[in-house]
Amino acid sequence: MKRKNTQSEPLKAKTVVGLFKLFAIMPFRLNRMIGGFIGWVNWLTKSRNVKITEINIRLCFPELNDEQIKRRVRASCIQSGMLLTEAAWVWLRPQSRVSPLINKVVGKEVLDAALAKGKGVLMASAHLGNWEPVLLWEGFQGNTAALYRVPKIAELDTIIRNAREKGGSELIMGERQGVRRMLQVLKEGKIFMILSDQEPVANSGVFAPFFGQPAYTMVLAQRLVQRTGAELLFFRCVRNKKGFELHIEQADFDVEEQNPEVFAAGLNKRLSQQIEHRPEQFEWAYKRFKTRPADIEKVY
Q1: Distance between CA 247 and CA 102 in Å, rounded?
Q2: Region of residue 189 (left: phi > 0; alpha: psi -120 to 50; beta: else)
């Protein structure tokens, strides 16, 4: 049997880390321009990610014609390229340089009112815009925890951990002991942040509509809210000309709903409403509909 060649893996990791360091020393405006160019080139190559992006956009926006879909796919690729280079800038620059990038905040009073109740706040979002600067925003310092997954490139783990913790945030792994810590954080009256649009592991989700498509959806948010009495808020951090704007909003569905499918439908509807504000800034390259009900054909 042919041995798998792993000699290229360390070189690949060093190359990625080196590029991230290069992106980080650029002025932010140039960084974003380079990212957009990388995304545009990616769109031209018609890579696997581009094809997945097109599949997802066709599924979620059946009313668009071919030309409209083409434009949205291109815009999505450009925004994804910006996310790549921006992430490096955020991770490797001092917090004092990153926090001011959030130059507009809408709904700070919603967060303050929720925290004043002393019950903890669960803040949910989708992979929309750039969520990396949020943990370094001055309004969250020292009072926040977030779900964390180890990156596929191990050499980035230390970089990302250090970056996300430099504002005083705690990172919690999504395992059994991690869930206990999430519950504890909320019971202590703190903020726990989670990106709720990714597929959960097997037997930890339910199917619920997402842009009209059945999407396997996590039940973690429901369990955390109902076991702690925490306030459920939604946030999105999207790009504007000079940096980012952070929007914080209340849940607009019954968070005491006991039926997991009904709760998940409300969660997905709220996430989709956020995405509709800036659909080109959502990460459409993720296989959101990979797991399908048994009677529905696979799409990827």
Answers
A1: 10
A2: left
219 CB-near residues (< 8 Å, 6+ apart) = 200, 204, 205, 206, 260, 263, 264
- Average pLDDT in the chain: 93
Q: Which of 2-6, 28-32, 86-90 has the lowest mean pLDDT?
A: 2-6
CA dihedral angle for residue 248, residue 246, residue 287, residue 84, rounded to 10 degrees: -160
d(CA 272, CA 270): 5
CB atoms within 10 A of CB 1: 3
Q: What is the pLDDT of residues 50-89, one digit of tens each?
A: 999 999 999 999 999 999 999 999 999 999 999 999 999 9
Q: What is the three-class DSSP state of 148?
A: strand
- How many C-beta neighbours within 10 Å does residue 282 have? 29
β-sheet bridge partners, residue 248: 235
Task: Write b or e for each residue in 45-55: b if 16 or more Cβ atoms lie within 10 A of its Cβ, otherwise e.
Answer: eeeebbebbbb
Could you give the count of Cα atoms lying within 13 Å of 150 in the half-sphere of its Cβ? Answer: 6
* Distance (Å, whole) CA 136 – CA 134: 5
Long-range contacts of 15-24 (CB under 8 A, 24+ apart): 16/153, 16/155, 16/156, 17/155, 17/156, 17/159, 19/88, 20/87, 20/88, 20/91, 20/92, 20/156, 20/159, 21/88, 21/92, 23/84, 23/85, 23/88, 23/89, 24/88, 24/89, 24/91, 24/92, 24/93
Mean pLDDT value of segment 165-172: 89
Centre a 10 Å sphere on the Cβ of residue 276 and count the other Cβ atoms it contains.
12
Element (H, E) at 76: helix 66-92
Q: Please name every residue paired with 237 in a beta bridge, in sequence order, or none if there are none.
A: 129, 246
- Here the tokens at position 288 are 């959101």
pTM of the predicted protein model: 0.91
Distance CA 69, CA 31 (A): 27
